[in-house]
Amino acid sequence: MIQRILAAALLPLATGAVLAAGEGEPNEGGASRVLYPGEDRLANVRQLTFGGENAEAYFSSDGDELIFQSTRGDRQCDAIYRMDADGSNVRQVSSGEGATTCSFIAPDDKAIIYASTHLGGPECPPKPDMSQGYVWPLYASYDIFRADPDGSNRVRLTDTPGYDAEGVYSPQGDKIVFTSVRSGDLELYLMNPDGTGVEQLTDVPGYDGGAFFSRDGEWIVWRASRPEGEALADYKALLAEGLVRPSKLEIFIMNLEDREPIQLTDNGAANFGPYWHPDGEHVIFVSNMDDPKGRDFDLYLIDVETRELERVTHFPGFDGFPMFSYDGSKLVFASNRNNAVRGETNVFIADWVW
């Protein structure tokens, strides 16, 4: 969401962050600008979508396809699409009813999952009231669904009251990690691919979400808030209204054997969208840590042992939702760069340079 989002997905939690945080300057004069000085980790950058709000693009295990969410045309909220990794063969795989977010392709490419509000009605749910500041909606009608690769034969996997979303498969395909409010707080859970065997992973007050597995399936990485005092009271009051304020999020990791959270970042910024590099030694994530105004989001690489940090992108706007291909050779991300119109968010792919 934010996420999954974070943030987006993150129309609930992430795409909202994209548009509000980094509108970027529209591209003028038709000159293409997809790479910026200092982005030495990226090569052969290609823009895959052109116009609308496109985010949370995630690779199939063979790297040949991407699944993503997009608000385009006359739609007022996200639908789920698939496309080839070169941007061709775009097709919608959700029904077009309700809002959708946080899609993912099973490792064997025999299924997809995504969250949808369609059981709550075919219309797009209402936008949140921003009179309380910048907040993300946690639509209670979100549930997680599995479908065939083309979107047919949709099956509901979650059926508890309240928000269920931000689901992704493990690389082995044996588990799905997701976020749910079923305990009264936003926590991480594991379940089997058929929705059975649900296990709670986190239990600290605050938002836990946007989790992804390491390549070996032994670890997860996610974003979390840990509010205290007045901030905790504000968090609980907003949660009761189906809202969350994403201004302070840190990155955590957890080994699924001992299940002890380990905090990677501690900068007080809005950190989200983490993803493991296949080497298991690095995590890429999104942060506004270098912008005092909090509007410029860039990608950062962190060594999970040394905590050594490296800034990856330098576009003065929004870069987010990174994912490495399973072999680590490619990086896909969403960005406001090279906009034709202010506020557009598009999907980009690049070769990763070590």
Automatic annotation (TrEMBL):
Protein name: WD40-like Beta Propeller Repeat
Keyword Signal: yes
Alphabetic keyword roster: Signal
Organism name: Halochromatium glycolicum
InterPro entries, per database record: 6-blade_b-propeller_TolB-like, WD40
Keyword Ion transport: no
Residues annotated as signal peptide: 1-20
Family membership: Belongs to the TolB family.
Superkingdom of the organism of origin: Bacteria
